[in-house]
Write a structure and sequence with these properties.
Elements: H1 4-18, H2 25-41, H3 48-65, H4 70-85, H5 91-121, E1 128-132, H6 137-148, E2 153-158, H7 166-175, E3 179-183, H8 188-192, E4 197-200, E5 204-205, E6 211-214, H9 217-226, E7 231-234, E8 275-278, E9 285-288, E10 291-293, H10 298-305
Parallel strand pairs: 1-2, 1-4, 2-3, 4-7, 7-9
Antiparallel strand pairs: 5-6, 6-8, 9-10
Helix pairs in contact: 1-2, 1-3, 2-3, 2-4, 2-5, 3-4, 4-5, 5-6
Bound molecules: ribulose-1,5-diphosphate.
The site of ribulose-1,5-diphosphate (RUB) has 17 residues, from helix 2, helix 6 and strand 6.
Length: 313
């Protein structure tokens, strides 16, 4: 069983993720893995089996915090797999395994982010206008890098209703000294002819090379295609969902109607999906740690670079 303090770090992280206090796939995965590590360090388990049970319990709580987050799921599975495979029997050693694997995972995530920024910033041309949707830390890091590389460009960001993550993007861009314009989500097509490049983040990549990101992304992609504006996705490959290869659909999280209208008229039906699917034919390229790739090559690349992703837990 968890003791009270141990429960705390995992429950607290799960709660903050659910409430969007922690948002964006990377931040969610980082918070989850840190919570698991903190919980493991506090473990009072007497043996490997009890320790694994605790980790499994943490996994269940964190997986349930947001439905459409394969990066978090891959991270947690990776840590638990390492414990399962370890020859160590003593809990103290197993805690070290958790710490070691967690640190390696976070370091590799950081390297991927920097590589994506390095590659993607080359696509930002001087005097260009870049549109982004929602808040992706991968995208804002890439845009900051382009600015540091001396590029002069503008950013257009959407509000990203209903919870306005576009405001986080806008603030980050202004802090980086980038000229920034905010538009309502429904104005995307109106401005698309003035946009040179669209870059968005991703929550999930499926085995067919489709990308799942904040609700509205597929409409942005549609508008970009119609206006012949290149549409790129900046993402770590570890957002790939291995279950999709076996035919499972990535679940789209549906959030509270209160986010859309806190006090709606009686009888009104409100639907509030958090994400949507952008099909691969709308995507010019995926900017990832391996460079700019076609969505078609995702399976092959994942199998080569992260074969462990297919291991079950
Ligand atoms: C955030 C969102 C982001 C991706 C990628 O949605 O859709 O584009 O998560 O972010 P929410 P990152 O605010 O609902 O979590 O690049 O930081 O992983």
């Amino acid at each position: 069983m968890w003791d009270a303090s141990l429960h705390e770090s995992v429950l607290d992280a799960a709660d903050r993720i659910r409430r969007l206090e922690i948002q964006g796939a990377r931040n969610v995965a980082i918070a989850a893995i840190k919570a698991i590590e903190a919980a493991a360090k506090e473990s009072k388990a007497r043996g490997k089996e009890a320790f694994l049970n605790e980790l499994m319990e943490a996994k269940t709580v964190l997986f349930a915090s947001r439905a459409t987050e394969p990066l978090m799921r891959n991270a947690i599975r990776h840590v638990i797999n390492a414990v399962e495979k370890s020859d160590e029997g003593a809990v103290r050693e197993l805690v070290d395994v958790v710490s070691q694997v967690s640190s390696q995972f976070l370091e590799s995530l950081e390297r991927s982010k920097e590589k994506i920024a390095e590659v993607g910033s080359k696509r930002i041309l001087n005097r260009s206008r870049v549109l982004t949707h929602c808040h992706s830390s991968t995208v804002t890091n890439m845009l900051r890098k382009a600015k540091l590389d001396g590029k002069s460009f503008e950013v257009v960001c959407t509000e990203s209703r209903p919870v306005f993550q576009g405001r986080i993007t806008a603030k980050e861009m202004l802090d980086a000294g980038i000229r920034t314009t905010m538009i309502v989500d429904s104005a995307v097509r109106h401005f698309m002819n003035e946009i040179d490049l669209v870059v968005v983040g991703a929550d999930a990549i499926t085995s067919e090379g489709n990308v799942i990101n904040k609700i509205g992304t597929s409409m942005v992609a549609l508008a970009a295609k119609e206006a012949r504006t290149p549409f790129y996705v900046a993402t770590e490959l570890l957002k790939f969902d291995p279950a999709t290869i076996h035919g499972d659909y990535e679940r789209i999280e549906e959030r509270s109607p209160k986010e859309v209208w806190a006090d709606p008229p009686h009888g009104l039906i409100i639907r509030n999906p958090a994400f949507d699917v952008t099909r691969r034919e709308f995507i010019h390229g995926i900017i990832c740690e391996e460079g700019i790739i076609s969505p078609h090559s995702i399976n092959e690349l994942i199998s080569r670079k992260y074969p462990w992703i297919f291991e079950a837990t």
